[in-house]
Amino acid sequence: MVSFRAALYFLVLWMVSIVVHAMPTLDIAQAEVRLTDFTVEYFTDDSRSLDFSSVRQQPFQPTTSTTTLGTKATVTWYRVAVFNAAEQERELFLHLPKAYHVRAIDIYEERSHTLIDRASIDLNNASDAPLMYQGTVVYPFRVPSGETTVLYVRSHVYSHQWFSLEIFDDEHSRRALVGGHLDIALLVGMMIALVFYNGLLYFATSKKENILYSLYLISGLVWIALSYGLIAKSFSAYGDSVFILNLSLITMPVFLLLFMMAIFETRQHYPTEHRFLQVMLALLAVTFAYGIFDISAALKPASSLAALMMVVTFSVSISLFRKGHPLVKFFLVGHTFFVVFNGFAVLYYKGLIEPGYISSHGVGIGIVLEALTLAFIISYRIKILEDVRSRQDELKKQAATDPLTRLYNRRYFMAEAGYLLEKAKSTGEPLSVIAVDVDFFKAVNDTHGHSIGDQVLTKISAIFKKHSRSRDLVARFGGEEFVLLLPDADLAEARRCAERIREAVAGETVVVEGGEVIQVTVSLGIAEVNALVESVECAVDRADKALYKAKEQGRNRVCCYQSDALTITT
């Protein structure tokens, strides 16, 4: 007769058997095993202290193998049962591809209600752990033919419980470990390129928004590389020392706000919007300071803070758009991408929507799309500034030149001549002046009209440019009077230049109405500037005296003022 104690024992075994068989079970019968999307169960240990024997008696809830449970599930147990329907024993591998972001992992392997094996990974000491491979925990286990192996995984996270389980055979396990993260590497590579490009722009423009944009990019690429496992895969770095880099999630919006203040000049032109940005900036600064001491606690409200930040920045952008800021429409396009994709990510991290590529990668996609738009804004702003500068240069040029001949006017000549005189003093180089006057020009105007006179002046001006050096300063002083200032030219060099001009003008003709040909000449006076004792004005006066002497001697000739005497060359 069966005793009461034995009956109770068999009853317990029967109840446990019912519980085990009620578990969602994966049937492994196919030759290839590559399971990435299947049903598992989870139990949240609010006490964070339950051991394996206690947890296995708890009620588990179904979820998917890639799941997110938000910030209130710091310690969560996952359970999956694998049944081998094949005739041979199967050796499989449990992958935890998101293990790089957790604090600790414990795995328990159970078969026939008996604990077969267990493994523990502390991420602070996981660089050389045999089960850790580039941020992925790989746990090998066996399932005998016709039997069920139950795996329990205890996940202890820092802040957000987002997790993934995969089961592979040997071949697919190797493939999974070799591939992956190419999309994240591409995003990071794009942002690094933008950092270098923007650095070059800073050296070219010295605008502070370029520095703020670079810091925003650096914060974004650090967070992307950290959150999606690129740092773990590349450097095998995990645990507390790496988790602190999640502060980049706070510095990123800080630099974005500062960039908005700089690029839109809110302090100077939009005080109301500036105050809203300042308040948001203060909240982020407090969170950052708190995160230095307790990053896990600081990240818990990070999703809510990110949602608030998106509302504030989007509202400010709308306000600036309605006030007609020329750049904000482009910012709105990029920021809309940022808000939409980060909205999916916030819902994902809070465990409010099902995991998916867009939701799990929303922050990275949003950052890159906005970063590209911000790069366009900076480039477009540079174009606007260059257009403004070009118009200003054109206005300056118009103010400095004679509208008819396009030579410099008297005012510009005297200003630039002062600079060239100081340069001649410091270097000891010679400096000479040539004064030019068109012979009988009044007769040309009186006989043929001012339009023909203008043609004559235009042709003579072109000759001045052609037969002088590029560094020579050529100006129209008024009417038919011109002056040339020749740096690094003594009297002999100036005389050769004057002769070239005189001969070229004498050989030039202007055909007027009726086929009549007009030929004009010029008289020229030269003086070398004594840079140590006199001004350019004094030298111009001496060149004028030489010019008048040339006219007295019959015109179409060059006269040089040398010391107290005038030397005439015909």
Automatic annotation (TrEMBL):
Name of the protein: diguanylate cyclase
EC number: 2.7.7.65
Species of the source: Marinobacter vinifirmus
Listed cofactors: Mg(2+)
Keyword Lipid metabolism (UniProt): no
Ranges in a coiled coil: none
Key word Kinase present: no
GO molecular function: diguanylate cyclase activity
Pfam families reported in the protein's UniProt record: 7TMR-DISM_7TM (PF07695), 7TMR-DISMED2 (PF07696), GGDEF (PF00990)
Reactions performed catalytically: 2 GTP = 3',3'-c-di-GMP + 2 diphosphate
Regions crossing the membrane: 184-204, 211-231, 243-264, 276-293, 305-321, 328-349, 361-382
InterPro entries assigned to the protein according to its UniProt record, in alphabetical order: 7TMR_DISM_rcpt_extracell_dom1, 7TMR_DISM_rcpt_extracell_dom2, Diguanylate_Cyclase, GGDEF_dom, Nucleotide_cyclase, Rev_trsase/Diguanyl_cyclase
Keywords of the record: Membrane, Transmembrane, Transmembrane helix
Domain GGDEF: residue ranges: 429-563
Domain of life: Bacteria
NCBIfam families the UniProt entry points to: GGDEF
